[in-house]
Amino acid sequence: MKPDTTFTQINGGITAPIGFRAAAVSCGIKVDALDLALIVSDNPASAAAMFTTNKTVAAPVVVCREHLKNSGGIARAIAVNSGCANACTGEPGLTNAQMMSQVLASEIHCPTEQTLVASTGVIGLPLEVSKIESGIITAAKNLDRHSNQEAAKAIMTTDPWPKETAVQVNTPAGSFTIGGMVKGSGMIEPMMATMLAFLTTDALIDSLQLRRALSSVTDETFNSISVDGECSTNDSVFLLANGSSGISVSDAIYPFFVDGLRQVCSKLAKDIVRGGEGATKLVSIRVTGANTGHDARRAARAIANSLLVKTALHGADPNWGRFIAVAGRAGVTFEPSRALVRIGSVVLYENETAWPEREAEASQHMNGDEVDVVIDLGTMGDEEATVWTCDLSAEYIRINADYRT
Amino acid sequence: MKPDTTFTQINGGITAPIGFRAAAVSCGIKVDALDLALIVSDNPASAAAMFTTNKTVAAPVVVCREHLKNSGGIARAIAVNSGCANACTGEPGLTNAQMMSQVLASEIHCPTEQTLVASTGVIGLPLEVSKIESGIITAAKNLDRHSNQEAAKAIMTTDPWPKETAVQVNTPAGSFTIGGMVKGSGMIEPMMATMLAFLTTDALIDSLQLRRALSSVTDETFNSISVDGECSTNDSVFLLANGSSGISVSDAIYPFFVDGLRQVCSKLAKDIVRGGEGATKLVSIRVTGANTGHDARRAARAIANSLLVKTALHGADPNWGRFIAVAGRAGVTFEPSRALVRIGSVVLYENETAWPEREAEASQHMNGDEVDVVIDLGTMGDEEATVWTCDLSAEYIRINADYRT
Question: What residues in B contact A349, CB-CB < 8 Å?
């Protein structure tokens, strides 16, 4: 049963929940830009995380998995750097991630296993760990409840703007807060979050429940977006719950907690797409009339990742034939003779009939910042799925052809 | 055993083999451009064809399948138009494809089931069949052995140039000729040719053998290329063998025939990639060290279709981390710790070690027209596969954002 949750949008991002502080510094990995952020909970927090499904896993992911296991799902602090992914860096990379973790633990005065680390940026570059260490030492002295936005800036790579949000979740048992920040904006694909997300809450919830909530919400949000069909080596979603609000997430309150978490993650996931490399629009691809949920998701992903679809979206060209062609090659049950394509509120194709005279109206909708597309697979099934994607522009090429130069 | 085949590259394209004539006209589907081609064999030829795996199948594909079945694999003539794909056009579209076929049969004086038809261009547009009919009537009067290049022009859509080739195949039993022409250049993906290819030969071979040869060669050539990961509704490869050379493809000669066919198809397949929308380079992605051939092919395709790989290729950026990241998400057995990336002759990454000092040399290789990349998956297996792809440029976006406007 759906709880009647009410939310209040508030400021403060990751430091909006009680008992969380943050800091951001420029430690020299990037040139003259914030490149290191700390998130610290005043007391040990329940911790859950989801990591990339890529078989090439960056060193910080390896360290985090081990720490979460050893700590029994408890964490005090997270350190994140941008500019270097510390991926494909072999044994030295692993040592560097461990050292990053140890310095953090020593500054925060907690066991090393209660620290988490994340890195994002160029793959294969060695992590300049001495810069990171100095940065952590400086940042740890400057933790406060007002550096949330600077922290969101410090984790950016090609992101056009910092992305954060926070909501107060009102429940029958009282209110608690969930905050979060994310970075995109290339290598974004469904099937594991494929970006970095840091979520905090002052609700009181054990780490098993926390993991259950995070896993289900990630599936509908961070796992349902795509910028470029890529899946990175470093993608991670972290969620810390420190209980400082005094509101305990009982079985009765759990649905409210999930609702609040979904609210935060959905906002951040769509913001990643909005801020996708070269993106000019947020596009929702909703596939209906599928035989199975798996088929619906698969078709929606194939369409969301199609170059021809993404370029048509960019050009505001209601070229519905491209949607049908991708649905046909997606490897799902598909009945072309009963398929439908709708852009905005305009049905362009149904029962093998096209209405070219409606294309101008569809194109007008496509010229907006948010585009809604519905593709019905025409099977007898009624399963559906939605994936959020963006258009593909020449700017994406420019960004990615010269990323390192 | 590999035959010691020798080839002589000759002019003439599809009309190089004895007994084939062609014609091209401007019938008015496109504005002031050749848009209709005929290929006619003087006598009934053995015919084989491979069609798209897309579940949305264009009307001409439906008609060709039926004709090949009814004729027992015999064909006299093919009509192809560009500018309109006659796909997603329902019952009227099927009727139009049949009418196109009937007019062709009537002009060539053969049974309708011995004609084949193909269309390429915009999906969903009704085929202006009266223009096609007049065009076929005019073209049938102008068939000759010198219109091969005009025919190759008439089948183009966004192709930057016409693509044709022909070889004389020298065998112990004598020589025969194989010619061909293709059109790309968007919606090109492995798993069925995903473009139109027309092949002719004056070798004498029955349609079952012809189909066997075409199927195996298509797999290594047209099914091993990708421009944009798309698979169209119309993709077809046609091969007509009219026996006019008098050279019979016996069991002893069959390997020579396959060799010759591979020579022609390989050239044409690579030409499609070279002429891919916005492409500036032909890139061979060779995946080695795979556990299975399927894994090798799957990884090679994932890499060949990756936006981050294709943009790095465009920027001549030897960003080997992107190759490793894609191999890691390709869903194949992969051992990052033993993986290798080589660009040209330069090993950039091996045994978790990178050599940044070699990148300048790799970048120099990437600046050329042809780029060779090898990715070893580091498993104990020794299976491998090669896929040909192109880089992704801003020009691709320009072409596809405004295709219909």
Answer: 88, 124
pLDDT range class, residue B386, cuts 50, 70, 90: very high
- Is A194 known to be catalytic? yes
- Active-site hit among B194, B201, B379, B389: B194
Condensed to tens digits (0 to 9), the pLDDT of residues A363-395 reads 999 999 999 999 999 998 999 999 999 998 988
pLDDT of residue B404 exceeding 60: no
Highest mean pLDDT among A48-57, A115-124, A137-146, B266-275: A137-146
Predicted confidence (pLDDT) at residue A29 exceeds the cutoff of 70? yes
What residues does B81 pair with on adjacent strands?
B36, B119
Contact A328 B56 (CB under 8 A): yes
> What is the nearest CA distance from A298 to chain B, expressed in angstroms?
15
**What is the secondary structure of B276-305 as a DSSP string?**
STT---EEEEEEEEESSHHHHHHHHHHHHH
Q: CB-CB: which of A56, A124, A317 is closest to B328?
A: A56
Interface test with A, best of B52, B56, B158, B343 (most A CBs within 10 A): B56
Q: Are residues B232 and B343 in the same domain?
A: no
What is the CB neighbour count within 10 angstroms for residue B128? 16
Residues A226 and A362 in one domain: no
- Over residues A325-345, the mean pLDDT reads 92
Chain center to CA of B336: 34
Ramachandran angles phi, psi of A224, nearest 5°: -115, 30
* Residue B1 domain flag: no
By CA distance, what is A352's nearest residue in B? Answer: B90
Helix (H) or strand (E) holding A169: strand A163-171
The answer to whether B315 contacts A54, with C-beta atoms less than 8 Å apart, is: no
pLDDT for A336 equals 87
- Cα–Cα distances in Å, from A17 out to A39, A154, A203, B370? 12, 20, 8, 55
Are residues A334 and A262 part of one domain? no
A266 shares a domain with A304 = no
- Among A228, A190, A255, CA closest to A385: A190
What SS3 class is residue A196?
A: strand
Q: Is there a domain that residue A47 lies in?
A: yes
- Measured between alpha carbons, how far is A359 from B128 in angstroms, rounded to an integer? 20
CB pairs under 8 A between A and B: 199
Residues of A in contact with B396 (CB under 8 A): 307, 311, 397
Domain extent at residue B361: 282-401
Q: Which residues from B are below 8 Å from A85, CB to CB?
A: 321
Name every chain A residue with its beta carbon within 8 A of the beta carbon of B352.
88-91
In residues, how long is chain B?
A: 405
Amino acid code (one letter) for A234: N
From the candidates A194, A201, A218, A288, give the one annotated as an active-site residue. A194
- Assess if residue B390 is contained within a domain: yes
Q: Regarding predicted confidence, which is higher, B160 or A70?
A: A70
